[in-house]
Amino acid sequence: MALMTCPDCSHQMSDTAPACPQCGWARAAVAANLATAQHAAAKAKSDEEGAKLVRISTLVMAIGLLLMLSGCGLTIGLGAGPLPAIAGVGLGFIALVVSAVIGQVGRAKQGRIV
Length: 114
Ligand SMILES: [Zn+2]
Prior knowledge:
mainly alpha; 2 helices
């Protein structure tokens, strides 16, 4: 235990005391304010990361849909056999699943209900 000087009244107080015995300056309030500020900063960072993940998820979803459409387009439009359609739909489906997972993680980081 050490002594510190109260920032409010300059009275010597224990650095473990929750408040100044002389003027009642409360250390807890300062700590709480600091914690609130840190929490807000952490939340802003998390929101930003979440928004980025949601954007990535949208991009991956678009790629998945394009793969499906182009695979089917090659098979149906150009008569290229069933392989492009199977590959396109398969890869596109994987991309959609990945997109859904990334999007859910992003929304969870933003604090939205998943
Ligand atoms: Zn004081």
